[in-house]
Amino acid sequence: MLNQKTIDIIKSTVPVLEEHGEKITTRFYQLMFGNHPELLNIFNHANQKQGRQQKALAGTVYAAAMYIDNLEAILPVVNQIAHKHRSLGIKPEHYPIVGKHLLLAIKDVLGDAATDEIIDAWAQAYGVIADAFIGVEAEMYDEAARQNGGWDGFRSFVVAQKVVESDVITSFYLKPEDNRGIADFIPGQYISIKLEIKGEKFTHIRQYSLSDAPGKEYYRISVKREAGTPNPDGMVSNYLHNDVNEGDILKISAPAGDFILDLKKDTPVVLLSGGVGLTPMMSMLKTVAEFQPERSVTFIHAAQNGNVHALREEVEELAALQQVNSYFFYDSPTDEDRLNNNFDVEGYVTREWLKENVSLKDTDFYFCGPLPFMKAINNSLKELGVNEERIHFEFFGPKASLV
């Protein structure tokens, strides 16, 4: 427990963290990777290069300082990050390394303003925060390993099928190499894939949402090829598309993630996706259709056009069921799309369309996709009076702001 003096000192640094947070976290990663390059085997290089991880960490540190006397208030954030950590293989021995370099970064950026008293207070606070993460993650590691078909760390899976779904998205069906059972999952969760790419010094780990219903003998992920190898996100997705074939072995973690469909409810659910954000939505849609046949579900997907629209046939098959409605939005339909009536609405999903076509009462909304799409959906739902408790979303990558 922290004493009141330490709490007061930490809270006094909140304005400083708000102003200098990203400078501190940027310097933190520079220092830590300089002294411990082996940690680049765990951290997402793309998020580092794009600055997304630095921004997300700054937000977490800021929130921790704000609520240092009531860490339960940020438990949802801790839980979300802990899922990521478990799927990446972050262990207790990593936390002292992180703490040391975070304090060094604070001192480096703030200079004389970071007094010994402030550094000491943050050292104590970090110890409490780290213990919270370690405790939560220990339970997650134990649960992942002990569940039926579960395992610890990374397990070898065979690419049983590789299916091209569109010009940019390909699905991979993964079966365990040892032919033993696999862990169940909740629709919306993801797995991590650990890759050793020829010519790369460090391993690369990426997380991909599971795109099929649970209860199968395989996991399915549907991966978008990110345009251009200079794009740091493109290295792994292009490798999967170009170099991974049926029969190859991939190392994957047990399913993780807290963006999940509440299967205890039977109220209507609306699933909204943009681009490759449809992957967790497909898992949710197929699960509702299979396991909750009386539950009303509306599936809304936005894509550029039919060339990049993946898994449409699966949705169309399910839309034949009485309780399933589906709508496809294309913002740049091709002539072929128009000829074949491949879409329902030309343009974007708007607040006005949602108001006219979707039941808002007692409905839960789940959405995922590019950040502009998510901001637009989130704002529309709030403007329509949808309660925050019924709005659920997932970021692909570090947490960002939808404001």
Automatic annotation (TrEMBL):
Globin domain mapped to chain residues: 1-138
Stretches for region Reductase: 149-403
Annotated InterPro entries: Cbr1-like_FAD-bd_dom (IPR008333), FAD-bd_FR_type (IPR017927), FNR_nucleotide-bd (IPR039261), Globin (IPR000971), Globin-like_sf (IPR009050), Globin/Proto (IPR012292), Hmp (IPR023950), OxRdtase_FAD/NAD-bd (IPR001433)
Reaction catalyzed: 2 nitric oxide + NADPH + 2 O2 = 2 nitrate + NADP(+) + H(+); 2 nitric oxide + NADH + 2 O2 = 2 nitrate + NAD(+) + H(+)
Site (Involved in heme-bound ligand stabilization and O-O bond activation): Y29
Xref: Pfam families: FAD_binding_6, Globin, NAD_binding_1
Site (Influences the redox potential of the prosthetic heme and FAD groups): K84, E394
Listed cofactors: heme b; FAD
Domain FAD-binding FR-type: 152-262
Positions in coiled-coil regions: none
Enzyme Commission (EC) number: 1.14.12.17
Manner of cofactor binding, per the entry note: Binds 1 heme b (iron(II)-protoporphyrin IX) group per subunit.
Keyword list, A-Z: Detoxification, FAD, Flavoprotein, Heme, Iron, Metal-binding, NAD, NADP, Oxidoreductase, Oxygen transport, Transport
Active site: Y95 (charge relay system), E137 (charge relay system)
SUPFAM superfamilies: Ferredoxin reductase-like, C-terminal NADP-linked domain, Globin-like, Riboflavin synthase domain-like
Binding, NADP(+): G275, V276, G277, L278, T279, P280
CDD domains: flavohem_like_fad_nad_binding (cd06184), Yhb1-globin-like (cd14777)
Molecular functions per Gene Ontology: nitric oxide dioxygenase NAD(P)H activity
Residues binding FAD, per UniProt: Y190, R206, Q207, Y208, S209, F395, F396, G397, P398
Positions bound to heme b: H85
Tagged with keyword Oxidoreductase: yes
Function per UniProt: Is involved in NO detoxification in an aerobic process, termed nitric oxide dioxygenase (NOD) reaction that utilizes O(2) and NAD(P)H to convert NO to nitrate, which protects the bacterium from various noxious nitrogen compounds. Therefore, plays a central role in the inducible response to nitrosative stress.
Free-text note regarding domains: Consists of two distinct domains; an N-terminal heme-containing oxygen-binding domain and a C-terminal reductase domain with binding sites for FAD and NAD(P)H.
Family of the protein in this entry: Belongs to the globin family. Two-domain flavohemoproteins subfamily. In the C-terminal section; belongs to the flavoprotein pyridine nucleotide cytochrome reductase family.
Protein name: Flavohemoprotein
Organism this protein belongs to: Neobacillus pocheonensis
Lineage: Bacteria, Bacillati, Bacillota, Bacilli, Bacillales
